[in-house]
Amino acid sequence: MPPDHLPDLRLECFIPAYNEAVDLESNVLRLLAYCRGKLGDGFRVTVVDNGSTDRTGSTADVLAASQREVAALHFPEKGRGRALRRAFLRSEAEWLGYMDADLSTHLAALPAALERLEAGAELVIGSRLLPGAHTRRRLHRELLSRSYNALVRAAFGSRIKDHQCGFKFLTRKACRELVPQTQDDLWFFDTELLILAQRAHRRIDEIPVSWIEDLGSTVRILRTILDDLCGMHRLRRRLSEAGAPGG
Predict the structure, then answer these.
(1) CA–CA separation, 203 vs 199, rounded Å?
(2) Which of these is catalytic: 190, 205, 227, 228?
(3) Which bin fits 144, alpha (ψ -120 to 50), beta or left (φ > 0)?
(4) Which of 11, 115, 233, 244 is the most interior residue, by most CB within 10 Å?
């Protein structure tokens, strides 16, 4: 359960974690040290364990017990989208969002995102495809990412360059209005949230980030692609039934 000793919670950074026990402690401590140095007080790092079968849950509990600004949430079902939706809607922070457990996105993006929220953005998302971004990943991952993003832009009229980067933050108000409308329980959750936000005319700031692929990632690429395509089909059908085909 989240701790109750941070009454003036300005930022809650969620770390969705599925079988991340090997690097979870070191990565959370690295993020924690960075936030303490850059943000001062008023932040929380919350590990969201979704159906892990290794020591992820117990590692998160140890971190929460030993670090004032760390909390742990446990959901028995696997599914990043489902876990993030539940976690987001529990948060009382002014700003909330998530970073991938491997911290592939350079931490320098965090204060940059908060500056945009301070300036009036309702969602701030990292992009590996904007000018100024620095990305290191295998060629086939690069091609798959660019193809997916082009497909989403064509299918929904999206203006976003990178829908899938594991770095997204939003205001509590935007969260309460948009997140309950999402339905996907898996990886398409991110894209669905962004499409709904654009259709609601929310201000979305996309910022270039430095990003390094985690070669030890547990993500199954082909399975994720199929899940995303199914998610796109469901969302197009849903929007069409609502009288607004595509984007």
Answers:
(1) 11
(2) 190
(3) alpha
(4) 11
Six token digits for residue 153: 């832009």
Q: Hey, what amino acid is at 68? A: R
Is 41 annotated as catalytic? no
List, in sequence order, every beta strand (DSSP E) within 178-247. 204-208, 210-212
| Residue found by looking up tokens 């390094």 in the block | 212
pTM of the model: 0.92
Instruction: Kindly give the confidence (pLDDT) of every residue in the chain, 247 residues in length, as a single tens digit, with 9 standing for 90 and above.
Output: 444 455 589 999 999 999 999 999 999 999 999 999 999 999 999 999 999 999 999 999 999 999 999 999 999 999 999 999 999 999 999 999 999 999 999 999 999 999 999 999 999 999 999 999 999 999 988 999 999 999 999 999 999 999 999 999 999 999 999 999 999 999 999 999 999 999 999 999 999 999 999 766 555 677 888 899 999 999 999 999 987 544 4
Structural domains of the chain ordered from first start: 1-103 (3.90.550.10), 122-242 (no CATH)
